[in-house]
Amino acid sequence: MNKLILSTAALALTAGFAMADTVRLGTEGAYPPYNFIDDSGEVAGFEREVGDEVCARAELDCEWVTNEWDSIIPNLVSGNYDVIIAGMSITDERDEVIDFTQNYTQPDPSGYLAASADADIEGGVLAAQTGTIQAAFIASSGATLVEFATPEETISAVKNGEADAVLADDAYLRPIASEDDALLMLEKTELLGGGVGLGVRESDGELKAKLDAAIQSMKDDGSLNELLAKWEIGPGF
Q1: Which helix (H) or strand (E) holds 208?
Q2: Which member of 18, 106, 131, 235 has the greatest number of CB atoms within 10 A?
Q3: What are the residues whose beta carbons fall under 8 Å from the beta carbon of 62, sequence distance 6 or more?
Q4: Residue 228 backbone phi and psi in degrees, to 5
Q5: CATH class for the domain made up of 110-190
Q6: What angle do CA 44, 129, 142 make, to 5 degrees?
């Protein structure tokens, strides 16, 4: 999920990650196909499969934790979990607060979902989830930005006429458009961010190295491309 934390407190780390401990993977659980909660109440989706495989290859004992998007970086820094795996694009601004592994997706196009093919995306009202790279892009354009805490609320804003369109990851929006006759994808797309990576605290270099090696091994043997194709997320490596 191509997202940008626009601001976050600069928190000092008082305790680092101990490699013998369980690694807690923090995700939002509300952004399919990257991550969502299934009918049994478990984290599911592309990132569930990536995270489980990365942990297995890195020989780490991992558990999943859910956290709301708008506080996901501060709660990593403060130690509520050890890794962010939540469709988070690698950006320079975020990299000032946390560290990233190498990317496990290529930059995925952001698309516009609207109720009408002639929706004004240049100077109209556009919805985006708070703290995303899409929100930052709209804010720097000639359009008017309206932000919402959850991706579901951005869709509702378009359906109820509060926004002309929503800008979000194409992989998230396209299935919604295919299932709702009142909505459609516009032809224009935006290529934002540098791909999605795992976020870790800046003090956890040893953990980052293990995660990086596991991701690289998935790229090398083609298993990461298989998951990208399975979940229909962007181009492969």
Answers
A1: helix 205-221
A2: 131
A3: 22, 23, 24, 25, 51, 52, 55
A4: -60, -40
A5: alpha beta
A6: 145
Tokens of 116: 């009408």
The residue count of the chain comes to: 237
Q: What is the pLDDT of residues 168-194, one digit of tens each?
A: 999 999 999 999 999 999 999 999 988
Alpha-carbon gap, residue 219 to 66, rounded angstroms? 26
- Give the contacts of 50 (CB within 8 A, at least 6 positions apart): 85, 104, 218, 224, 227
Domain 23-107+194-230 in this protein, CATH class: alpha beta
CA atoms within 13 A on the CB side of 100: 22
Reference 17, options 69, 66, 50, 58; nearest CA is 58
Residue 167 has pLDDT above 80, yes or no: yes
Q: Residue 48 and residue 54: Cα distance in Å, rounded?
A: 10
The pLDDT, as a whole number, for residue 43 is 98
Quote the percentage of the chain above a pLDDT of 70.
92
In the chain, domain spans:
23-107+194-230, 110-190
Global confidence as pTM: 0.83
CA atoms 203, 207, 213, 219: torsion sign: negative
- In angstroms, rounded to a whole number, what is the distance separating the alpha carbons of residues 163 and 156? 9
Check for a shared fold between 23-107+194-230 and 110-190. yes
For residue 218, report the phi and psi dihedrals to the nearest 5 degrees: -70, -35
User: Residue 35 in contact with residue 85, Cβ under 8 Å?
Assistant: yes
Give the integer Cα–Cα distance in Å for 176 and 144: 23
